[in-house]
Amino acid sequence: MSRAPACPQCGSKRVWKDGLRYTSFGAIQRYICRTCGYRFSDPSKTLRSVGATTTYSNACQERALLAKVAEAEKGAAGATLKQEVKGKILSFAWNLQKEGYCENTIQNYMKFLQLLIKAGANLLNPESVKETIAKKKNWSNSTKCLASVAYQAFAKRNGIPWKPPRYKPSRKLPFIPLESEIDALIAGCGKKISTLLQLLKETGMRLGEALSLEWKNIDFKRKTITLNTPEKNGNPRIFRMSDQLISMLKRLPIRNSKVFGKMTKHSAEANFNIQRKKLAIKLGNPRLLRITFHTLRHWKGTMEYAKTKDILHVMRLLGHKNINSTLIYTQLIKFESDEYHSSVAHTVDEARKLIEAGFEYVCEIDGIKLFRKRK
User: Fold this and answer.
1) Which CATH superfamily, name and number, covers 179-331?
2) At what angle are helices 311-318 and 293-308 packed, to 10 degrees?
3) Does 56 score more than 70 pLDDT?
4) For residues 339 and 309, is the Cβ–Cβ distance under 8 A?
5) What is the dihedral of CA 103, 104, 110, 114, to 10 degrees?
6) What is the DSSP letter of 257?
7) Global pTM exceeds 0.70
8) Selecting from 1.10.150, 1.10.357, 1.10.8, 3.30.70, what CATH number does the domain 77-157 have?
9) CA-CA distance, 58 to 66, in Å (whole number)?
10) Residues 237-250: what's their mean pLDDT?
């Protein structure tokens, strides 16, 4: 017959049995001290939690310990799941790189997978992903579609059955600013950002293409820029540079092989957003806040089509492989303003400079050539 334990409160051995406490670990004898009246459970019974043995002596301690064990088990399971998902994401990115996907595509997939995780989705449970996407009220259908495409690629490479939701991206016509607004941004930004803006304005490059340019791609004597690293499987191109762009490029410091040094998309956009906001307030023009780096690509394509009416020329300029991507610029020739800057040329050299500055020839009167450029 086992002896009754001493009271943990006063140490008295004058204790009586006081019924049983039934737990998931079995029945536990309870006692009451006849000296001080303290009730406690059998201290010889223990619960083994993660890596330690913990003793309880009363009902409150017991309940607290059970809650702690459940919390520890839940936390351990969550940490294990998080590590498993992280490993699958890294493996997914490595597989995309081995299969020849461009860096921009891989980064976009990673961005949307991280957004889904941050929103509470379990990437190993497709229903959890669908529910998370559906609850994102601040996401447009286009964003939801991109998130679905990113997860579809992840699910396919991990053998997860996935039936994508039916989100249709709504295509909108891009914002086309006035040239005077673009020039105001170029004039008001810092040296490096203004050079980047002028480059995008004249060439219609994507931001990633411009940031990948190296000094060896620029020929100052022939006034040309060669793009051999196009994004989105586009075609390589050669662009003519204006004297203004050449002057701005020569002002940049040469610290490594790249024209814009270690500038990344994120740092360029963050820097530009700060300067753009200051200029919009200073000039009292909120339309400037709608201008992004990619806006200049749309502006260039629109202006080239308005000037030449040659869709194939615009397609080659922008590096598109599918003409359907270029046809949108045929819908963007309704400008905010129909006002023009006008200028005249008396010599061939003056006419050449006007054409390089973006002016288009109108007519000739009394031996004087008239040119115009939209404001």
Assistant:
1) Intergrase catalytic core (1.10.443.10)
2) 150
3) no
4) no
5) 140
6) S
7) no
8) 1.10.150
9) 12
10) 95
